Amino acid sequence: MNNIDKKYLKTIYILFKKELMGYFNSPIAYIFIGVFLIVGNWLFFKNFYIIGQASMRAYFELLPWIFLFLAPAITMRLWAEEKKNGTIEFLLTLPLTDWQIVLSKFFGGLAFLFISLLLTITIPISLVSIGNVDWGPVIGGYLGALFLGGAYLALGLFISSLTKNQIIAFILALVTSFIAFIIGANFVLIGAPQFLVPIMSFMGLGTHFYNIARGVLDSKDIIYYLSFIFVFLYLNARVIETRGWK
Amino acid sequence: MIEISNLTKKFGTNVVLDDISFSVKKGEILGFLGPNGAGKTTTMKIITSFWTPTKGTVKIDGVDVMVDSMATRKKIGYLPETVPLYDDMRVYEYLKFVAEIRGIDKGRIKERMASVVGSCGLKQVIRKPIEELSKGFRQRVGLAQAIMHEPDILILDEPTTGLDPNQIAEIRDLIKKIGKEKTIIFSTHILSEVSATCDRAIIINNGKIVAEGSPGNLVKQAGGKEIVYIKVRGPRDVVLEKLKEMENIESVEYKDKEAENIFGFNIVPKAGVDIREHLSMKVVKNNWNIYELYRESVSLEDVFMDLTK
């Protein structure tokens, strides 16, 4: 790796560090994580001992819906706050490319999501106490959660770049993520025109998540998520480049 | 050092900058004057690559900011009008972040931080959260941010706005001190600031340059007008009448009243004529008494108001 690439990555790392620290400098991050853990665990363990299966399937059924709130909460401030504080002028006049800044923010959010997921480790641990665990779907579930979370974050980050207002960023990200998630769900497809069904089924974030969460790692699903993330990061970089926000 | 040619910026149909050109030499402190909305901030945002121009070029040391923005950005330190601080950080965390992101070598970060903390007087607040800082200190932290990477050029957008008189004086001294080694453009609408700190001033209005020169020259350009003020004891209307009869006078107006029968008048003489001797004789001849007599030249304030009406 030559010097310029190293410097490029190092700058991303410095910014990434600032973004991640930014979460933990405010009490809000702890509240997010707290609520995420409580809601997830409560909804899961409520039925866990009744069903008595050593499986996390129920949890990963739930997770996309919880993420629907967590991810926009993570991304809402990322650009909106820089704009409100005027730090955006500092950031965008540094000798950095727009991509460097967008990537730092994305990976900052992803790292936060990763930490939140890491703290749910109590669930698989309690599975072990109850019986033999099939680890494939557990690992697949976590992996899928990261991909799905990444997709939500990329979308939410893009939306945050369009506005100065955190609340608007949150609500818009929630609504669009919701649509992107359910567009491929069965109950939506039933009502859709026949020719749109395969497209919608492929476009939906949810379909691909449940594929991976079953423990089936198909390159189609991974490519889908990576493209989804790339598209919204690209749009984000374009908005930043043209300073196209209100 | 900074070369701006035919710079135009439009937002939709709204022309914010209309074909302005000027240059700044190395080591110069340039004051950028103009009413709100004149285009000062826009010009600065284009120089710093925050915005792109609709037309025209900005060159830093011969390098076009549109062509090699990464190179020009490195040479510039920028303090925007809204001081860009992360409120959730402490002062030293912020400065360290600035040093790192500016790509300062690890071994030199401590030294640079100590240097900016020293020159901006931040020692006593270094451990404080930024959100607890007073406006004056926020401004200083902002300035510290701008000089961290030892840029050749400093762009300061209204660095003294919202500060109290003591803080203004401090920031101004700081700018002067830093200005010894750097090229500075700073905008303001406080005119005394320009007279006090700048080598040269540019007055801009409605996106156009309306005057340019040293503060002294700008005043001269306004026509070298002067006002003679006289305070006299005597009947007001009669005095006014008699003064108006004098030769070489453009206008006389009643200005103020100190006490019963003691009145002040502003007299504008014809250009280049010294009327003071004549004036005092006139007063004495009429058996009035002179309480005050002085001459003042038109201030930069007047030039400014005149040009940006």
Describe the structure.
The complex is a heterodimer of chains A (about 250) and B (about 300). With about 250 residues, chain A is mostly helical. Chain A has one domain. Chain A is about 80% helix and about 0% strand. In chain A, α5 runs antiparallel to α7. The model of chain A has no long low-confidence stretch (mean pLDDT about 90). Chain B is an alpha/beta fold. Chain B folds into 2 domains: about 220 residues, Rossmann fold (3-Layer(aba) Sandwich); about 80 residues, Ribosomal protein S6/Translation elongation factor EF1B (Alpha-Beta Plaits, 2-Layer Sandwich), CATH 3.30.70. Chain B contains 11 helices and 14 strands. In chain B, β9 and β10 form a beta hairpin. Chain B starts with a strand and ends with a helix. Classes of the chains: A mainly alpha (about 250), B alpha/beta (about 300). At the A-B interface, α1 and α4 of A face α2 and α3 of B.
Notable characteristics:
heterodimer, A: 246 residues, mainly alpha, globular, B: 309 residues, alpha/beta, Rossmann fold, Alpha-Beta Plaits, 2 domains, four-stranded antiparallel beta sheet, 11 helices, 14 strands, 36% helix, elongated
Summarize the structure.
The complex is a heterodimer of chains A (246) and B (309). Chain A has helices spanning 3-24, 27-51, 57-85, 87-91, 98-118, 122-130, 135-160, 166-182, 186-189, 197-203, 205-213, 219-241. Chain A is an all-alpha fold and 246 residues long.
